[in-house]
Amino acid sequence: MKGWTKMSEFGDLHALTEDEWDKCWAINTKGNMHLLREALPTFNANPDGGVFLMTSSSAGITQAGSTMAYSVTKAAGLHLMKCLAATQGPKIRVNAVLPGLLLTEWGEAFGEAQIKMIKERAVLKQETMLDDCADAFIMAAKNSSMTGQNIQIDSGLAIK
């Protein structure tokens, strides 16, 4: 599940309607809980359990992103991930991948000036490479010693 947002001025408190904030919350935060609930019977039936990987964003650990609602709901999703990891183990591992700017069709919608600014803010002075992001999901799925972790793949955009 990739999430939901739309482009707006980050600090504009009127950019999204109440319904759009609710949609962002329902998809970006509650959606992961509902997906895991549906997967539980399969994970529990599997002797090895399973791994639940959430797609988050560097916006969830910064005060930036396509909208304030997106940033807030991704942050809430990361706390949900930690709560799920703490309560659903040892059979189920739960982690989140936090990409930075991905130059997909959606990422290109930021516009040339915004993309240039984001790249300049990143320590590696580049966008997040799609293959690197995909590799992070594969690594997290294979790693049997990791749960409750934010896996940042963001070219150094949000160093903590």
Descriptive terms for the model:
160 residues; mainly alpha; three-stranded parallel β-sheet
Walk me through this protein's architecture:
Strand 1, helix 2 and strand 2 form a beta-alpha-beta unit. The model has no long low-confidence stretch (mean pLDDT 89). 48% of the residues lie in helices and 11% in strands. It has 160 residues and is mainly α. It is built from five helices and three strands; from the N terminus they run αβαβαααβ.
Low-confidence segments: none
Total beta strand runs: 3
Global Rg: 16 Å
Number of helical segments with 4 or more residues: 5
Strand order of the largest sheet: 1-2-3
Helix content: 40-55%
Integer average pLDDT? 89
Summarize the helix and strand pattern as letters: HEHEHHHE
- What kind of sheet is the major sheet? 3 strands, parallel
| SSE-based structural type | mainly alpha
**Distance from first to last alpha carbon:** 26 Å
Strand residues, percent: 5-15%
Shape, principal axes of CA atoms: globular
Q: Can you summarize this structure?
A:
Helix content is 48%, strand content 11%. It has helices spanning 18-45, 68-88, 105-108, 112-121, 130-142; strands at residues 50-55, 92-99, 150-153.
Reconstruct the topology from this structure.
Layout: H1 18-45, E1 50-55, H2 68-88, E2 92-99, H3 105-108, H4 112-121, H5 130-142, E3 150-153
Parallel strand pairs: 1-2, 2-3
Helix pairs in contact: 1-2
